[in-house]
Amino acid sequence: MRHGPYLALIWLRLLWMAIGEEPPLLALLPPDDFAGSDSSSLLLSLHIKKTDGLCEQMLARGSVLPAEVTKLFTTTQDNQASARLELYAGERPFCEGNRFLGMLELAPLPMPSYRSFVQLEVTLLVDSGAIVCRAAEVESRALGEPFCEAEWRGEIGLGGPPPACSPYSEVTLFSHALTKHLPVLLPTRSVRLGGRDVIIRQHQRREQERIGTGGVLWEAAIVLADFVGRNGEQLAWAGKKVLELGAGTGLVAIALAHAGASVTATDGNLRVLQGAEANLQAAQPFAGSVALEVFDWNSAEDLAKIQRLGPWDAIVGSDLVYPGNAGKKCVDSNALSPPADQTLIELLEALRNDQTQMILALKDRTGELERFNATLLRHGFSSRRAVPDSIMPEFRDIPQVAVLHLEKTTWRVSNLCLAIAGCLWLFVESIPKSKCNYARCFTQISRCERVSFITLILILIERLRLRLPYVDACEAVAST
C-alpha cells in the first residue's frame, strides 16, 4: 500500500501516452513519510538556453513548489540589439533534446558608446500550475534610468516547436570568475553585495586618460569586496578605521562602508580617485563612511599624511602586486621605484601596529603569489590563505585568486626558540662544549631581524651537519 501513489502516477502517465498526449511536467507527490499535507514537486528540470544550445539549469527536478530562482546572464555579441531567453524542460545537457516551453525577448537593449556586453537578470517563478519568467537589463535599472524588461507566462505542460536559432540574440551565464576580457568590454559592471546590486562604472580609454589598471574592476577586488561582507560577523567591521591601499573603482570601499567601517581609500592616481568618487556617490547611503586621499607610495610626505590619519584597525588592498613591471604605468613615480612587492611590504611595516589586521586579495598571473610570499618571509611577515568556504563561490575552485591574512612575525620568541633548538642540537651531536659560546650565539642570532625563522633553521642545520663550530654557524647566519 505504501507504493500506491507512485503506481497511480505510472498508470496516469501510461494513460496520457495511450491517448497521444504528453503528461504535465508537475504532479502532486506525497511527502517521504506519507503524512501531513501534499507538496508539489517538479518532475523535470527547467533550463534557459545558452550559447551553442547548452542548458543552464534554473530549477532541478524534484524542487519543492512554489519555487523562485534568479540568475545573471549576459549578451554574447558586441553591441547586441536584443536578447532571446528560451525556456526548456528536461534532463539532457543540450536544449535540442529537451522540451521547449516558451520564450521572451528583451529589445531594444541599450547601446553603450564602447564595445560592450549587457548584463541581464532572469527570474523564474514556478508553482503547481504555471511558470513565470521575468528578465530585465541590470545596469540601467540600478542607475534609475529607463530599462528594458520582459515577462513570459505559460502553463506547465504546454509548449510548441522551438524557434529558429538566432546567433545575434543569444545569452550565456554571467560569472565574475569567467570574465577575463569583460573588464575591458563592459563600461559598467554589476556586483551583488549583501543583496544589493552595486553598479561600477569603468574607465575604458585608459591610456588616453592615464587611468592605468586602477580604472578597471578586476577579479581580486570583486573577491575582496565579497569577502568583506561574507565574513562581516567574524571581522566586525562596524566602527573600525580601515585603510585601503589602491582604491581602484571603489568597490572594496563600498563594501566596507556598507558593513559600517570608517574607510580611507587611497590611490596614487587622481583620475582613479575621481572615478571611485562617482561610484561611491551612486552606492550611498552607507552604514559607515568613506574618505578619499591621494597616496603616492613613493612620497615620504604622503606616507606621513596617511600615518597621521591612523592608527589603523585594518589595512586592505587588492591586486597590489603585478606581473613584471605592469604597475609602473599606474603612477608616474613608479617608473624609478623598486618592485611593488617590496614597496608594499615597507608601507605595511610603516603603517601597521600590533593590532592591525592586514588582508590582501591577489591574483596569480605569472607567479605573483609565490614571489610575494617569499618577499614576505624575507621581511619578517607570514601569510595565511583564507579557506575556500569564506570566499565567493565562483572563485573557490580557482587557486590563482587568493585572500591572504598577513601577520608580522614575533622575532623575540622566534629567536629564543632558535637559540634553545641550537643548544639542544649541539648537545645531541656531542659537539665539544669548548667550541661553544652560548651568550655570543644568542646575541648573534637575535640580530637577525630580517631573515625568516625557517631560513635560520636551515642554515644552522647545514652548519651543524658539517660539524662546524656553533659560533661560526651563528656568525654565518647573522651575515645573511
UniProtKB/TrEMBL annotation:
GO MF: ATP binding; ATP-dependent protein folding chaperone
Origin: domain of life: Eukaryota
Pfam families listed in its UniProt record: HSP70, Methyltransf_16
Keyword Nucleotide-binding: yes
InterPro entries: HSP70_peptide-bd_sf, Hsp_70_fam, Methyltransf_16, SAM-dependent_MTases_sf
Keywords: ATP-binding, Nucleotide-binding, Signal
Signal peptide annotation: 1-20
PANTHER family: HEPATOCELLULAR CARCINOMA-ASSOCIATED ANTIGEN
Name this polypeptide is given: Uncharacterized protein
Organism of origin: Effrenium voratum
